[in-house]
Amino acid sequence: MKVKMLSRNPDHYVRETKLDLHRVPRNYDPTLHPFEVPREYIRALNATKLERVFAKPFLASLDGHRDGVNCLAKNPKSLATVLSGACDGEVKIWNLTRRKCIRTIQAHEGFVRGICTRFCGTSFFTVGDDKTVKQWKMDGPSCGEEEEPLHTILGKTVYTGIDHHWKEAVFATCGQQVDIWDEQRTNPICSMTWGYDSISSVKFNPIETFLLGSCASDRNIVLYDMRQATPLKKVILDMRTNTICWNPMEAFIFTAANEDYNLYTFDMRALDTPVMVHMDHVSAVLDVDYSPTGREFVSASFDKSIRIFPVDKSRSREVYHTKRMQHVICVKWTADSKYIMCGSDEMNIRLWKANASEKLGVLASREKAATDYNQKLKEKFQYHPHIKRISRHRHLPKSIYSQIQEQRIMKEARRRKELNRIKHSKPGSVQMVSEKKKHIVAVVK
Amino acid sequence: METVPKPGSNVPPKKDRLQAKKKKPRRYWEQETTGTAAGASPGPPRKRKRNRELRPQKPKKNDTSKKFRISKKPRELKSPGPQRSLSGAQDPFAGPAPVSVEVVQKYCRIDKSKEVPHPKTKTRSRLVAAEAQEEETSVRAARSELLLAEEPGFLEGEDGEDTAKIRQADIVEAVDIASAAKHFDLNLRQFGPYRLNYSSTGRHLAFGGRRGHVAALDWVTKKLMCEINVMEAVRDVWFLHSEALLAVAQNRWLHIYDNQGIELHCVRRCDRVTRLEFLPFHFLLATASETGFLTYLDVSVGKIVAALNARAGRLSVMTQNPYNAVIHLGHSNGTVSLWSPAMKEPLAKILCHRGGVRAVAVDPTGTHMATSGLDHQLKLFDLRGTFQPLSARTLPQGAGHLAFSQRGLLAAGMGDVVNIWAGQGKASPPSLEQPYLTHRLSGHVNGLQFCPYEDVLGVGHSGGITSMLVPGAGEPNFDGLESNPYRSRKQRQEWEVKALLEKVPAELICLDPRALAEVDVISLEQAKKERAERLGYDPDATAPFQPKPKQKGRSSTASLVKRKRKVMDQEHRDKVRQSLEQQPQKQEKAKPTGARPSALDRFVR
């Protein structure tokens, strides 16, 4: 007879002293872990609920401006430094870690229309209603020195926007035309126009650095190549585009913030159909900025809220609002992709977390592992109706909520009318136009 | 062995064989190195034929670069061969350790044979990625088996010796002292036949005698936790989620005691309870009563979740399926009915016996159910879908009590004899031909349970309690986060909080516990239909073919119509061909159903 009994030595399973950690032997055999799916589902449900509990995105409000904040700029070399220009011509430089204003400049008379930093982070440019372009040093004046711009260019017309080239000493302004300037000269290298309307913003492509895009109030978005004297092509939309932003990871993708409450993500190679129409705002979208990962962007709207959209989704994943925040005019996503800043009409700059329920600070390794596990579970069960409902729920102010309801009714009515029109006309004579194509008027080359 | 030489050793194997034939005289220091070179891999060459790659389409040369190598080869063969010295370095353990296919299969959770109905390309690519990830996970989990510390027990007779003839005393003599101490008899003749229950960690034992004696003890150290007399008939005892709470089915009502023997609750909604079952992941206490009701009590909030009328008279046979938490009730008309708290009606009814059902047991993997009836039959049923009997056997007395062990052993109490049958492995059904062990007790059996994570069978009988040694019954390696027999009080408290946080709601109990992770095709189709209705057109429908305009006058109306016609005809032909292909399949499928179907038909490929 050969016999062996299961006989465990307790010393192998119990810790030796109270200072040791408890021993936890693992066995991953599925029969020892019954109800794997239902238990994971419950864990995912709990994780989703906790995510909503811990969703406290608002971090700080930077106050100090004496008029509405009109433009924001990041410093490419310093995460903590942010520049803002206000409607009274004042420019403030902020330190985000201390949440304090470190410098104030009375830069222009009237609005500061645009602000941008140089790629090296040593100086920045502002344009204002007083028809000037000014270059400023990033560091403050030393003791006894006057606060003065490095250079001042006097123009003939009002400039409404400015952007700096990502690699060279070249910048572009817009107003009645798009001007490209060398930093050393007082006259533009070249001026490009297409039509006769005022251009509201101009942006350099961060990857294909010779490309730039602008949007004008005659409802078009125009693309330029700096090496040519003439514009490349333009697309005309239903309504006017306020600003555009290039995707920092994909050279040919840009997103346009439109007056018709939507954002349009375009592939510049095929402008006749946008890649995605992002709908959720209930008023004109005023500004847009990409996350440095290029997977998401944030938009600021006249409806007193900012929203975060994934690039490939038409609906927003997040909406931020507070009782005191008025029309949001400018928004920026910080370079570490963790925070969002927005400047609004009521003179404040607000700092938000990009991921509302994220815990700030250094995480312990077990905490990190737990959040990763929960994230994976949430992903796995995201389509279950109960979990989807909880993770999608957002509280909205009454004004936005009722606007959404109203617009849903209007949209439904339009769709019904279209269906009826199709039903009662000759088959094939009236076509259903998809949402993507509906808003594009023409593409001109 | 299937280790493949590193690119460094570029000795062609053909030449090696020639060398081996010649048998050149070797120096003692040469012996090791040539051995490696000749085989080009450590281990005997004949075993290489048995190796089978999980993915045979991949060329063999890629083996070293492949992240996970899987070979069909028992673990013993993996002994490292001779190694080369520093100069001609060859790693005998190149790459990750090979894992056998069967072990990987055990950890695989996806069924690749199931097709998801027409996924879009985006979804399909995501599914492919998920499947690859799943495969990787199962290989990793299989590889972690190397770390398991304990081996299961076994009992083998000499040549021709029947293990059933081996007495408990012989086993006790042969095993070590610690194991021998696990065999004991409690002689309690006064308080009549006993029911018993082990806690989920297998560390504690509770028993209750018919005449009111209730006790709980740490049976390993033999430390008594409490001993009381409830002065009332006791029908059944059961530990709740931990050893701190004990449910006792007394003559009138259900009572809950703590480990000091203090009565915490008297549940009057559950009256005249005959059998108890606790569903540990749902925190439900299922009670079967004389009045014919199956009642589910949520012990975490103290509410009755469901009270189901089985409409079959007195209920005295009940067991749970540990795989899906479905309750099996045995009835006097020979049927076994399967219940979930979410349904008022049974999920299934199985006619098992002529005459009443005396005992039911379900194995931990949820694949087999053993029943015994008044017709003295012991039957094994397959629970995966068809509920067909797999094997049956007539016992002289008929079994009054049945229990499955963690490793698939089946114990039956017949009068004062306990028989145990063993199968081939964990998931295979026990063969009812030859018993593995038998034991005669001093009284009639009234309750049976295998102790979890131990090679012990507890038997409650009219003479007291007997703890039998059954080598190979228990799972050798426990999971410390699931149920740890060596946990401290603090660990138990933490586990309790975690377990309560992930309490599975009672509505999720159904026959297939993995159904929650599968695509809900029915409501998907419904939603699609509703969407198409709402929009007035189907957004997923493919647009009809529209010929592209061509240059140089080839775009006349006639040619356009012709091209359109051509595409339409091709589509039509494809459709007809498809339907023709499907027809003979249907006929083939219809044929075997004409003959008597067998439970093994599903394995025919």
UniProtKB/TrEMBL annotation, chain A:
Tell me which species this is from. Odocoileus virginianus
Q: What is the lineage of its organism?
A: Eukaryota, Metazoa, Chordata, Craniata, Vertebrata
For this protein, the record's PANTHER family field holds: DDB1- AND CUL4-ASSOCIATED FACTOR 13, U3 SMALL NUCLEOLAR RNA U3 SNORNA ASSOCIATED PROTEIN
Check the record and name the Gene3D superfamilies matching this protein: YVTN repeat-like/Quinoprotein amine dehydrogenase
A GO cellular component annotation in the UniProt record: small-subunit processome
The Translation initiation factor beta propellor-like domain is annotated at: 199-307
Q: Where is the Sof1-like protein domain?
A: 354-440
Localization (cell):
Nucleus, Nucleolus
Protein encoded by which gene: DCAF13
What GO annotations for molecular function exist for this entry? translation initiation factor activity; ubiquitin-like ligase-substrate adaptor activity
User: Which protein are we looking at?
Assistant: DDB1- and CUL4-associated factor 13
UniProtKB/TrEMBL annotation, chain B:
Q: Which InterPro entries match?
A: BING4_C_dom (IPR012952), WD40/YVTN_repeat-like_dom_sf (IPR015943), WD40_repeat_dom_sf (IPR036322), WD40_rpt (IPR001680), WDR46/Utp7 (IPR040315)
For bias type Basic and acidic residues, the affected ranges are: 53-66, 567-578
A single GO CC term, please? 90S preribosome
Identify the main location: nucleus
- Region Disordered: list its residue ranges: 1-97, 116-135, 533-605
GO annotation, biological process: maturation of SSU-rRNA from tricistronic rRNA transcript (SSU-rRNA, 5.8S rRNA, LSU-rRNA)
Q: Which UniProt keywords apply?
A: Nucleus, Repeat, WD repeat
Q: Where are the WD repeats?
A: 350-384
Tell me which Pfam families the record gives: BING4CT (PF08149), WD40 (PF00400)
Q: Which domain of life is it from?
A: Eukaryota
Where does the UniProt annotation locate this protein? Answer: Nucleus, Nucleolus
Record has Repeat as a keyword: yes
The segment(s) forming the BING4 C-terminal domain are 435-513
This protein's name: WD repeat-containing protein 46
Q: Which organism is it from?
A: Odocoileus virginianus
Q: What is the phylogenetic placement of the source species in the record? A: Eukaryota, Metazoa, Chordata, Craniata, Vertebrata
